[in-house]
């Protein structure tokens, strides 16, 4: 594996974690959303990663394979005076768990930071190698 492949691996991981952070932000923004007029509430989304093995071009890394919706039921709250209440007086909220999403956000941001550090370390090692040849 060439030293320059490190940038490809870390770059793909940074891109994937950035997409994960966007999904987490969307989930957190809709954590208190209620069901719309069609009766469907917002469903939490989760990123599925896939490793990319080293191919003929020598590239390896990670990519986002899919973004899946959670099939957990929405939270039902008894609020008969709410305009979105159903015939039984329940309002269906999204199935987003804010605590779980905050943990996902911290994990994604730490992974992002670690990959930036890997790139910075590889860059400094390459620069020191070039300085040795002068």
UniProtKB/TrEMBL annotation:
Residues 9-36 form the Flagellar basal body rod protein N-terminal domain. Residues 88-132 form the Flagellar basal-body/hook protein C-terminal domain. The keyword Repeat does not apply. It is found in: Bacterial flagellum basal body. Residues 56-90 are annotated as: Disordered. The basal body constitutes a major portion of the flagellar organelle and consists of four rings (L,P,S, and M) mounted on a central rod. The rod consists of about 26 subunits of FlgG in the distal portion, and FlgB, FlgC and FlgF are thought to build up the proximal portion of the rod with about 6 subunits each. PANTHER family: FLAGELLAR BASAL-BODY ROD PROTEIN FLGC (PTHR30435:SF2), FLAGELLAR PROTEIN (PTHR30435). Signal peptide: none annotated. It comes from the Bacteria. Belongs to the flagella basal body rod proteins family. Keywords: Bacterial flagellum, Cell projection, Cilium, Flagellum. InterPro entries: Flag_bb_rod_N, Flg_bb/hook_C_dom, FlgC. It holds the Pfam family Flg_bb_rod. Residues 63-74 have a biased composition (Basic and acidic residues). This is Flagellar basal-body rod protein FlgC.
């Amino acid at each position: 594996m060439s030293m320059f492949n490190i940038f490809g691996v870390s770059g793909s991981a940074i891109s994937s974690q950035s997409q994960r952070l966007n999904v987490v932000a969307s989930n957190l923004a809709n954590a208190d959303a209620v069901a719309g007029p069609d009766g469907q509430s917002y469903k939490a989304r989760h990123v599925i990663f896939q490793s990319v093995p080293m191919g003929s071009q020598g590239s390896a890394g990670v990519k986002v394979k899919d973004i899946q919706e959670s099939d957990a039921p929405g939270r039902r709250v008894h609020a008969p005076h709410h305009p979105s209440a159903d015939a039984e007086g329940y309002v269906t909220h999204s199935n987003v768990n804010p605590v779980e999403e905050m943990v996902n956000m911290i994990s994604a941001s730490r992974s992002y930071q670690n990959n930036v550090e890997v790139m910075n370390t590889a860059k400094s090692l390459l620069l020191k190698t070039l300085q040795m040849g002068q």
